Amino acid sequence: MTVSENIIEIKHLSKYYGHARGVEDVSLSVKQGEFFGFIGPNGAGKSTTIRILLNLIFPTSGSAKIFGLDIVKDSKQIRSRLAYVPSDANLYDTMRVHEFLRFGAAFYGGNKSEDRIRELAGLMELDLDRRIPELSTGNKKKVNIIQALVHHADLLVLDEPTTGLDPLIQSRLFNLLAEENKRGVTIFFSSHVLSEVQALCRRVAIVKDGRIIKSDEITALRDKQLKKVRVLFSDESPRQELNIKGIESFQAESAKSIVFMFSGDINELIQRLSVLRIENLSIEEPPLEEIFLHYYR
């Protein structure tokens, strides 16, 4: 698959609600065929950016194009070629699942969509005969996902698509998205879960407080990724033994327990720890907020 022209191009986009900040001076581009991650904590500005792109709200300043078309002037033409999964599932409560999906499919030539609806419903374990008010949050999200995947759109815009899904269904969704991407679909994947973005995306933009603070290839972010390390020693903490490159935000939880962030060579750290008397050791992915603080510094 050849990655070429920009499918999404955002330039200095800002949105204010009175004096309150939505997003500020956001610029990024997504190329054709990319699986692009847009990641940040809740309230960072991810959904605001997406709603501007879909012309659901208007920007205060700046501009954006999708398929080379202006998001405001050419909104109708853009929407005919993309599919969207919102962060909150808002469905018509008077319908059954199959009625809602067929209603949506009718806007895109629904007669050809029946088999695809049933195929996706089977994979997502969704009962098409259930009434929408009876569905859990996770099952409502499945309806949104199926609606987005039925039409083989050129661009998928996914805002927190895994919310409410159990791990098995999440895995199936990731496989479906990978298949769509392989056939050339561009995917804009918004999430606050770093592990999802790392597993799926080639490139990522990190947003915090309405601004993009880091944009890079996912492989580069992996190489620089922080680990949160907690060590419980058998005796008093020998801090001087851990004077190696990559340790920062060092904290003593007690005389025997320490916690720190680590961005260096994990093999060097393990080698240094292996000669010490340790009761317990944990190395884990830190919360996104700690990663953001790292990039701010």
Question: What is the compact description of this entry?
Answer:
The protein has 297 residues and is α/β, with parallel strands linked by helices. It contains 10 helices and 14 strands.
Describe the structure.
The structure is a single chain. The mean pLDDT is 88. The protein is of the alpha/beta class. Helix 4 (114-124) packs antiparallel against helix 5 (137-149). It has two domains: 6-223, Rossmann fold; 225-296, Alpha-Beta Plaits. The protein has ten helices and 14 strands. The strands form three sheets. Strands 6-7-8-3-9-10 form a six-stranded mixed beta sheet, sandwiched between helices.
Count of the domains: 2
Which structural class matches the secondary elements? alpha/beta
Assigned CATH class of the largest domain:
Alpha Beta
Q: Based on the coordinates given, report the CATH architecture of the largest domain.
A: 3-Layer(aba) Sandwich
- Taking Cα atoms only, what radius of gyration do you get, to the nearest Å? 22 Å
Largest sheet: 6 strands, mixed
Quickly count the helices.
10
Helix content: 25-40%
Per DSSP, what share of the residues sits in E-state strands of 2 or more residues?
25-35%
What is the first-to-last residue Cα distance? 37 Å
Average pLDDT confidence is 88
Looking at CATH, which topology of the largest domain would you report?
Answer: Rossmann fold
Q: Name the CATH superfamily assignment of the largest domain.
A: P-loop containing nucleotide triphosphate hydrolases
Shape: globular
Major sheet strand order: 6-7-8-3-9-10
Low confidence ranges:
none
Number-wise, the strands total 14
Q: Helix-strand pattern, N to C?
A: EEEHEEHEHHHEHEHEEHEEEHEH
